[in-house]
Each structure stands twice: as C-alpha cells, then as structure tokens.
What does this fold into?
Amino acid sequence: MHKPLYIKEFLAAFEQVVPQALAYDWDAVGLQMGDVNTPLTGILTTLDVTEAVVDEAIEQGVNLIMSHHPIMFKPMKKIDFSTVKGRLIKKCLLNGLTIFSAHTNYDRVDGGMNDRLADRLALVNREMLVEEDEIKNVKLQVFVPHTHKEILDEALTRLGIGTMGNYEACVYETDGIGRFQPTDKADPFIGERQTREAVEEVKLEYLITHDQVSNALSIIDEVHPYETPAFDLIPLLNTGKVRGIGRVGDLTEPISFHPFIKKVKETFGLDGVRVAGQSDKLIKRVAILGGSGEKFTMAALKKQADVYITGDMTFHSTQDIAALGLNIIDAGHYLESVMKDDFKEICQAIFKKTDCDYPIVVSRVNTNPFRFI
Ligand SMILES: [Zn+2]
It folds into this structure.
C-alpha cells in the first residue's frame, strides 16, 4: 500500500520540473479546473482534452488529466452545457476530474517539448531556433547551524537547486562561527536575549537560476531553525544558458530529402506530412518546432537549416520560404502528441522521488482532427 499523495503535492513537484513562470503572458497554463485538495488516484497524459479523452480518464479510474493544450485557452464568460466545451466541463466536474495544462512553459523549459522532438531525430550541435532570453545565475549562500545542515541541503537539492551541467546537488561547504546577540524582542532558537552568542555554523553555497530564487527562499523559511535565517543572493556575471523555442541541429549523416521525410514519418508515427522545397536537396541541418511554427521560418533560414519541421503552415508563407531555399515538412500540429509519453516519464520520476506509485495512463485517443485518406 503506497502512501496517499494529494493532487496539489504532485502538482508542486511537477512545478519544479516545468515552472509555470516560463509560459508566455498570453497563455493559460496550470490548473484549469478541479480540486487539488483531493488524493490522487492516477494520471492520464494527453495532448488535448476532448470528450473521448475525458471518458477514457473516467474509465481508467484516474482523477488527474495532464494535458499540453489548455482546455480553457480563451477566457469563458459562461458555461453553457448545450455547447461542446460546456458539456466537457460538466462531465469533468461531475466526475471529480482535475485538469492541469503545461503548454508554452513545457515548450520553453530545458528538456521540454522541443528538446524531446530534437532528441527523437538525434540532432547534434544543437542550438535554439529562436533565442529569447538568458537564464540569469545567482549564488545562494546560506548560513546554518551544523545540526540543520543536512536537512536544509536535502530540501534545497530536492528542488533541483545546485544543478551544474550533468551534476546534481552541487554544494560547497565552509565551516565558520556565527556571532549574534538576540534583542529583547527576539525568540532565539539558540542563546539568550541580550547575551552575545557564538555558534558553529556552516556556509552552504549553491549555483541557482533566477527562476529558482523564490522556491529556495521558501525552503529556507520552512526548514532553517533560526528566527532570522542569514543568507545572501549574489547576482553572477557567469553566462547563463540561453532559453528559447524550437531547436536547430545537425543529423550525424546527411541524407536526401525523400529518405529524410520517411525517417520523420517513422520517428513520429505519422500517416502523412505535407512537404515543400527542392526534392533533391541534401539534408544535414534540421530546424524543428512543435505546434504552429509558421512565424519562425525566417529564423530557420537564418540558422542555415536545410529543412524546417513544424505544423500549421499556410499556402503563401510556404511558397515564399521555399522560394528562398528552405525546405518545409509540415508534420501537423499533432506532432506534439509525443509529449504524452514524455509527460509519463516526468510523472514516473516524480513518483519515484516521492516514493509513490499510481497508474499513469498515456491516452490512446487520437485527438488529431485531420486524417490522411
Ligand atoms: Zn500545440
């Protein structure tokens, strides 16, 4: 028998992996509906939330749907049960389902949608298709009495703090003496009011990203025994990682356009794709962006991609970009459905860390509105 895990606890752990702060302002990510103060019974991962997907979740007895596309992308003014969306919401609520979406935050996070797409094509020498901002690094140093060193370090590193390249839980430790004198108003954990105190303390230093600061401070607040914990946040000039969307990278071996199309179809399990550009072109450098990537065609050209794989391309812009020499594979928006397996992996890792075990169902519903005949 595994210990119960509340949906809000699971979502807090998911937030560490895919922070909502990374989403674009216009997006509608995170909790879409439901009661997060409910014990989790299981998870269903899906690209879209349709009625068939909701039926599947009910049938499988899971109460959390983790989707990529938000169910309520456009703000609603009323919930009319006679509409498709209204009926869907009614069904979710009556069946106690919680719906949570990670959309552009998952597109942008390191190791998210676009990295996973590039992984599947084994692209090397990878860079961002569109560079958006640099992740700022911060040095966190926190001074803690010896007795609480382990517990604080464990709580911080569990959040992914102290990750450097392929190394996790990186911390530098220095012993020292902390001196202080509690005032009349203080409620000291160690020492007496109005008496000078000296305590053997440890300074723990971590490299953290700017996004991790608020989580780190709430952990210090929660775990540090002192009434007023001492810590420093020092902005660093070290170059941080660049964040952005889409990926560009090289194939290990150049390949002609037609065999490459076949490879893309096989890799992503696609029945058909629309292509444009020169049929005899040799493909070495590949740009890929899941979803509707039409507005980034010039970025793909600038990054010297031979082909750009994305979805939702329209007639005229495809015509224009192909004339400039960039080949296009419109693999459809449904290309993104590979995230169903990737979300499962993320959920499994969270269960492993939290010592829980619940069913994770990868939706079998094909939510692609298009089919090839
Ligand atoms: Zn999408």
Summary: The chain has three domains: 7-106+337-362, 110-132+245-331, 136-235.
